[in-house]
Write a structure and sequence with these properties.
Elements lengths: L5 H6 L61 E13 L4 E12 L4 E7 L3 E10 L2 E4 L2 E3 L3 E10 L5 E9 L18 E4 L11 E4 L20 E10 L3 E4 L2 E7 L4 E12 L6 E4 L2 E7 L2 E7 L7 H5 L2 H12 L8 E6 L6 E2 L4 E5 L15 H10 L6 E3 L6 H19 L1 H19 L21 H17 L1 H14 L3 E3 L1 H12 L4 H8 L6 E9 L2 E8 L11 E9 L2 E9 L3 E7 L6 E4 L8 E4 L3 H10 L3 H10 L7 H10 L5 H10 L8 H14 L3 H11 L8 H7 L5 H12 L4 H8 L7 H14 L5 H10 L2 H15 L8 H13 L3 H14 L6 H11 L3 H10 L1
Parallel strand pairs: 1-11, 17-18, 18-20, 21-22, 23-29
Antiparallel strand pairs: 1-2, 2-8, 3-7, 4-5, 4-8, 6-7, 9-10, 10-15, 11-14, 12-15, 13-14, 16-17, 19-20, 23-24, 24-27, 25-26, 25-28
Helix pairs in contact: 3-4, 4-5, 5-6, 5-7, 6-7, 7-8, 8-9, 11-12, 12-14, 14-16, 15-16, 16-18, 17-18, 18-20, 20-22, 21-22, 22-24, 23-24, 24-25
């Protein structure tokens, strides 16, 4: 499962940490943070009852223990025969389940079946059928068997039912915004801008919204699904298409069979008008299902999938284990993407034109879901408490693929972004990675299970080395294929390979909350560097960490690595050197997931930039050394960075030079103009344009005008944003010609531009875009529309106000409701009557996330 696309929007809005996970000057202080102890902390039991304990804001409330589901029956096989009623949005199904008591004899079978009309339940014995008595409460189907069955006696039941997903109570979470399992998109065909589609989403326990099953991750079944659809539609499900039969009524029945067992939450169906682009890997079918207008660019988006399959197969020593692999893009998806066995579902944003691919690709999400075919599908978490055994590996696969395909620098930059996402979440929430207490399994889908887990795996890889790391993964996959696992089985695989006891690593990183917060300082005397490391984290609720780490000293431009192990809250190390070093760098490998404050002079930081062993060390210096007026050494370093071989360094330098006013500022601005026009990477050109826009009272309109004709949408969007505060007559007409573009970078840039400079001519443009944009764009569009309408006569605002109000009340995405609320709130400055409407919207909101935000806004 890919964390919802919303993440990139919200986590990037106000990241209170710098690139390396250190708090920025504006970051809020941690509530209840204590001074770092000078000795190891006393156990909690020794704390005096009179002591006042300050509870950190990130400490969650205690929730009930959530054990793995007890297994009474084993699902063996599921056969489904389904038809669809588009108008009613119903599924008409017949399910034939083969089950077997797990160990103890059983006289009843309990199935998850949410919101069905159950027509009949029968026991199958050969060609004979017997009606069985059952009780059904719209959640679980309790079937009374005709006798006691033992674990050596599999049996079959057949259930006829109607699934009515829209009649279920609405639920969902930040990661998976709806849990009704089965979705009909534009079922009546009334929306001309949207295709008719049907698709499913099973994780976490929503497969039982469309077929009866034992909806737990520690079950495994083979599967066969027959779908009857209209002739014009393509179908997709798990496994291979084993039969396709035309029916006399103009429909067609496609039968898909998965012969290897998988968990019920990984079952899927998709129906729609798709172009199917065929590819192969080692003779296995690799297919891409896209809307027909994206057929020409599908290979450009997905075409590296076979290369990924080859790379992961070789890296893991376990060949891609399934019969085929397909990927399908669907509309109005409720998450980012989902790793259904052999058939990944992506949200519509995975589809891109060739021009859009200039700025970015979808390799990360494609690699993420593909890696799940091993970690999650082939070997599955036994309980949602162990979800990181699925998601941390999938998250780390993005790093692995990027490292292989685009280089270590690009991978490290990605890892830096991932760590930043976790640190942002850790400001208000710190949980163990493997947590057996939670309110809902949906709570597991967070920045801990994904990004923190991925960074922890990177630390483990760095600690034991590549050979041991991938050998252990091979052992883990081989021993536990087609089974459900918990964290100890992963640990034992690593211990078996390395011969080391790694319980300390797994305990502190997987089973305890938080992360190290380190203050590092050093001094030199008598041919020794004295290094002091203080662990500042609140050790009442977080561990004192054991941290194997590399410290590098530089003499005469030659690095010497010193391997130390930090084990105490306050610890000093002596490092032998021949002379006073030019630089002492703690964690020079940049592998620790920690907040690090390291005392260095400016000269040492500059030395680090020019002699860095990795790109993260360069980026750390660029982030920390803000250029001051007249500081030629720093500005010279940044000008040098504008010519670095790696685009990420050039982009960081462009951002660091915003608003710079030194005596050589004119030369720097010329450099930024050069970069904005001619840098080979669109991300860097875009950043340079936005940097130029921070210099007031200077005319860069010629540069912006050239950028409006750039091949990159990202660069064009940056030019529009730059012109928003300094519009020119010469560029206004060109900007207006872009109103037909649907690329998100252009739409959001135009939205911001028109919010400040629009006229009545753009009113209809906003209304149209509010109808046909997706959630992440709508969040910004709705706010800009509110600002734009302040420029409109009050009598002309009625249609727009009604639009924003409807979105604020009823849009399915909570963040779109929030953006719409903000738009109305802006308008309320000039329309006081809207304040009553805002009060009513707040009062009727049911989503706890929004309620909390609204309370802060009052």
């Amino acid at each position: 499962m890919r964390y919802a696309a919303l993440g990139a929007l919200f986590w990037a809005i106000a990241l209170p940490f710098n690139l390396l996970g250190q708090p920025t000057k504006s970051a809020p202080k941690k509530s209840g943070a204590r001074k770092a102890p000078t000795t190891e902390p006393a156990p909690a039991a020794q704390i005096s009852p009179q002591s006042v304990l300050i509870v950190p804001n990130w400490l969650p409330q205690t929730h009930p223990v959530q054990p793995a589901a007890t297994i009474l029956h084993d699902l063996v096989d599921t056969k489904l025969d389904v038809k669809f009623d588009w108008a009613k949005q119903w599924l008409l199904g017949t399910a034939t389940l083969t089950v077997r008591p797990h160990f103890y004899p059983q006289t009843q079978l309990v199935l998850d079946a949410k919101g069905f009309d159950v027509k009949s339940v029968k026991l199958l014995t050969g060609t004979k059928e017997k009606n069985l008595n059952y009780q059904y409460d719209k959640r679980r189907l309790n079937i009374a068997l005709d006798r006691a069955y033992t674990r050596t006696e599999p049996y079959q039941v057949r259930i006829q039912y109607v699934a009515k997903p829209n009649e279920l109570a609405a639920g969902g979470s930040a990661a998976i915004t709806s849990d009704k399992g089965l979705y009909f998109i534009n079922p009546l065909g009334t929306d001309k801008n949207k295709p008719k589609q049907i698709w499913t989403q099973g994780e976490t326990e929503a497969s039982s919204c469309w077929f009866p099953t034992i909806d737990r991750p520690n079950q495994r079944m083979t599967q066969e699904i027959s779908m009857t659809v209209e002739q014009q539609y393509k179908t997709l499900s798990n496994g291979l298409l084993v039969n396709s039969k035309k029916n006399n009524d103009g429909t067609r029945t496609d039968t898909w069979k998965l012969s290897q067992p998988h968990a019920p939450y990984l079952a899927m169906m998709a129906v729609g008008d798709y172009a199917v682009i065929n590819d192969t890997w080692r003779g296995k079918a690799v297919d891409y299902y896209v809307e027909p207008k994206y057929a020409a660019s599908a290979k450009a988006v997905f075409g590296r999938t076979p290369e990924m399959m080859e790379y992961f197969s070789k890296k893991l020593g376990v060949d891609y284990p399934w019969e085929k692999y397909a990927q399908v893009a669907v509309r109005d998806y409720v998450s980012g993407a989902m790793e259904n066995t052999t058939a990944t579902v992506h949200g519509e944003n995975v589809q891109m034109t060739r021009r859009e691919l200039i700025d970015e690709n979808r390799d990360e999400v494609i690699a993420h879901e593909l890696f799940h075919q091993w970690f999650g599908d082939y070997v599955t978490t036994e309980s949602w408490s162990n979800l990181p055994l699925n998601e941390s590996f999938a998250d780390y696969s993005e790093y692995l693929w990027t490292e292989f395909k685009y280089g270590r620098e690009a991978a490290d930059l990605l890892g830096l972004k991932k760590a930043g996402y976790y640190f942002e979440e850790a400001q208000g929430k710190r949980e163990p990675l493997i947590r057996y207490r939670y309110a809902s399994q949906e709570d597991m889908f967070d920045r801990h299970s994904y990004e923190k887990g991925g960074r922890v795996l990177h630390m483990l890889r760095t600690l034991i080395g590549d050979d041991a790391f991938f050998t252990a993964l091979n052992r883990y996959l081989t021993l536990h294929k087609y089974s459900a696992v918990e964290i100890d089985e992963l640990r034992m695989a690593f211990e078996d390979v390395t011969g080391e006891d790694l319980k300390w690593f797994f305990d502190q990183w997987f089973l305890q909350r938080g992360h190290p917060e380190l203050a590092v300082s050093h001094s030199y005397a008598d041919s020794k560097v004295t290094l002091r490391v203080v662990q500042k984290q609140d050790t009442l609720y977080q561990p004192v960490y054991r941290l194997p780490v590399v410290v590098t000293t530089w003499n005469n431009n030659q690095p010497t690595d010193h391997r130390i192990v930090v084990t105490k809250a306050n610890q000093t190390f002596q490092l032998p050197v021949n002379q006073k070093p030019s630089l002492v760098q703690f964690d020079s490998e940049k592998m620790l997931l920690a907040n690090l404050e390291e005392s260095k002079t400016q000269d040492e930081q500059l030395y680090q930039y020019y002699h860095a062993k990795n790109v993260l060390s360069k980026l750390q210096v660029i982030e920390e050394l803000k250029p001051k007026v007249g500081d030629l050494a720093v500005s010279g370093m940044l000008r040098s960075a504008l010519n670095d071989n790696f685009w990420g360094v050039r982009r960081a330098a462009s951002e660091a030079l915003r608003r710079y006013k030194g005596p050589e500022g004119g030369a720097i601005r010329k450099e930024l103009q050069r970069v904005a026009i001619s840098d080979k990477d669109s991300r860097v050109r875009s950043s340079a344009l936005l940097a130029l826009a921070t210099f007031p009272n200077e005319d860069f309109s010629e540069v912006y005008a050239k950028a409006l004709a750039d091949s990159s949408y990202l660069v064009m969007g940056a030019a529009i944003k730059s012109l928003a505060k300094v519009p020119t007559l010469a560029t206004r007409e060109k900007i207006n010609t872009l109103q037909g573009e649907t690329n998100p970078a252009i739409v959001t840039a135009l939205s911001g531009y028109y919010a400040l400079n629009g006229t009545a001519d753009q009113y209809q443009w906003y209304l149209q875009r509010l109808d046909d944009s997706n959630g992440t764009e709508l969040y910004q569009l709705a706010q800009d529309f509110g600002t734009f309408m302040l420029r409109m006569p009050a009598v002309e605002r009625d249609k727009g106000v009604k639009k924003l109000e409807a979105m604020a009340r009823t849009h399915p995405e909570y963040y779109v409701r929030l953006g719409s609320y903000h738009g109305l709130r802006t308008l309320s400055e000039n329309m006081p009557n809207l304040k009553t409407t805002l009060v009513d919207i707040r009062g009727k909101e049911k989503d706890e996330r929004l309620i909390g935000i609204y309370n802060l806004l009052q």
